[in-house]
Design brief:
The protein is an alpha+beta fold. The protein has one domain: HIT family, subunit A (2-Layer Sandwich), CATH 3.30.428.10. Helix content is about 25%, strand content about 25%. The strands form 3 sheets. The chain has a 10-stranded antiparallel beta sheet with strand order 3-4-7-9-8-13-14-12-11-10, sandwiched between helices. A hairpin with a 5-residue loop joins strand 3 and strand 4. Helix 1 packs across helix 4. It is globular.
Length: about 325
């Protein structure tokens, strides 16, 4: 039987309708064939560094090779070419110069290395690169909000196979982000607590939707997940901004991220996915937000009802989806695959 559940973070209703689809374990995809280790025409493969734009960050690897590198995006949605972005208003028409920062973080020299099969030590290096670039952008007083994200697969919007993430920093804060902050502010004002800290405690206590837990991070499928296998990865320590993560917490984040990405990789056949770090914008106080990483496998899409009502339909109970992912057999070996 279906039911409606309220997402306490977004205040959005979700319809859980298991009769709309088969059970989660009947939706395993066919594992994709891995790409080659090196592609001569790929701008992110080693030896092709001249194909990219200016490098802004690099982590050294073994044998004189880089481990990760960050470059400015060759086709940026926003560009850092304005001393101070101008805001213009004419009646109801509001415009801001297209100022911002758009970078690509090349995660590994290997063209074929899946996140789910990266060594935890290398994921730690990637997250350290994230922190470096986040804080570099955050320090610019013209920047209001920084978003880190990864698109994997054509269904998630990627145009290059080589493992990479992106960062876009904007001079404005979107309505979606401001609305989410208002929701958290309301809970803080009413109950004197962070709604996400409260949710994390309740989820750990119930355990039904937990995917992975270590000393600093918890991964779970939320009670009112908007889609099948939608995953949130939270730091247990309250932090408004991702850039404040400690070195020890980076180790635990890498461990937890590797675990849940492996569950998706082996359980769903390496699905297309997006993940993104939701972090507080400049104007937000430390008490008003709790950053987290959201993972969205692209195994379904919004249809007319969702677009027309804003109410999403999830065809599986989050508890069953979590149970399935916890049951996935994951090999011990770490490789590129």
């Amino acid at each position: 039987m279906s039911e409606l559940r309220l997402n306490v973070v977004t205040k959005e209703w979700v319809i859980i309708a298991p009769e709309r689809a088969s059970r989660p374990y009947e939706h395993n995809g066919t594992k994709k064939e891995p790409p080659p280790q090196f592609v001569s025409t790929c701008p992110f493969c080693p030896g092709n560094e001249a194909m990219t734009t200016a490098e802004v960050f690099r982590t050294d690897g073994k044998n004189g090779q880089w481990a990760t590198r960050a470059v400015t995006n060759k086709f940026p949605v926003l560009s850092n070419g304005t001393a101070e972005p101008e805001h213009r208003h004419e009646g109801l028409m509001h415009t801001v110069d297209g100022f911002g920062i758009h970078e690509v973080i090349v995660e590994t020299p290997r063209h074929d290395q899946a996140t789910a099969r990266m060594p935890v030590s290398h994921l730690r290096t990637i997250i350290e690169a994230y922190r470096n670039r986040y804080n570099a952008c955050r320090s610019d007083p013209r920047i209001a909000h920084v978003v880190l994200f990864k698109n994997h697969g054509t269904g998630a919007g990627t145009s290059l196979i080589h493992p990479h993430s992106q960062l876009i920093a904007t001079p404005v804060i979107s309505y979606q982000v401001r609305d989410r902050i208002r929701t958290m502010e309301d809970h803080l004002a009413l109950y004197g607590e962070c709604v996400l800290c409260r949710m994390i405690c309740e989820e750990i206590s119930q355990a039904a939707r937990i995917l992975y837990l270590n000393s600093s991070f918890v991964a779970l499928i939320p009670y009112a997940a908007v889609s099948r296998f939608h995953i949130w990865l939270f730091p247990l320590r309250h932090m408004a901004r991702f850039g404040d993560i400690s070195d020890d917490e980076i180790v635990d984040m890498a461990d937890a991220l590797r675990a849940v990405m492996a569950q998706l990789y082996y359980g769903l056949g390496n699905p297309d996915f997006n993940y993104l770090i939701r972090s507080a914008p400049r104007t937000c106080t430390e008490e008003e937000f709790h950053w987290y990483l959201s993972i969205v496998p692209r195994i379904g899409q919004a249809a007319g009802f969702e677009l027309g009502s804003g109410i999403y339909v999830n065809p599986s109970y989050p508890e069953e989806s979590a149970e399935f992912l916890r049951s996935v057999s994951i090999p011990d070996d770490e490789g590129p695959g």
